[in-house]
Amino acid sequence: MTAAAGLVDGVAGPVDAAAVQVDDLAVRAGERRLVGPVTFAVPAGAVWGLRGPSGAGKSTILRALVGLLPATLSASGRAQVLGEDVLGGAVDFPALRARAALVGQVPVVFPASILANAAFGIRHVARASRAELRARAEAALREAGLWDEVADRLDAPAAQLSVGQKQRLCLARALALDPALLLLDEPTSALDPDAAGAVESAVSSLRGRRSVLMVSHDRRQLDRLCDGVAALA
Predict the structure, then answer these.
(1) What is the domain count for the chain?
(2) Which domain CATH number covers 68?
């Protein structure tokens, strides 16, 4: 199902149950409007898509939702993420980004081991023993569908992984935070079909356990994975 910009379609349950609620969100550079206005909602526990042509502003919308717009851009309208008014000026964005984790289009791994990469984010937001951190990182690798491929080499450099494995490692790094919401920015655009299929399988497995808002220009991919789609013109 598809929701055009300015409309909401297929939202299950009341609006206050939504993980994301966006109303007339627009992004501007000075007086020039770059994106929107767009209206959509992501029901809690759903996998939702955000579709549009290249340059339509899909990635910009994601960044606006977690306070990562560059200083030259401003957002207007209304946007709530996990109950937080993200345009209201009083949000603790670092804390929100631990609950609403953004995974970028290009997988970025640090010059460290696979396990250290998976645990990187959680080390900075949780007070936990080394054993607890390891357990959460390992659980995240399983949830991202990467565990069977790396279980016997967790101390190996993450740089040795394939591009598709690196993308799932970035997904695991986000999942280790135990976020309620995942924001995925074209997570398979740089991958071959087999690697893309592995990422899609991991995303699909999250349905009902985490809310997901996924940006893609691939209509067929969104049809396969998503419970609903918002479309940018």
Answers:
(1) 1
(2) 3.40.50.300
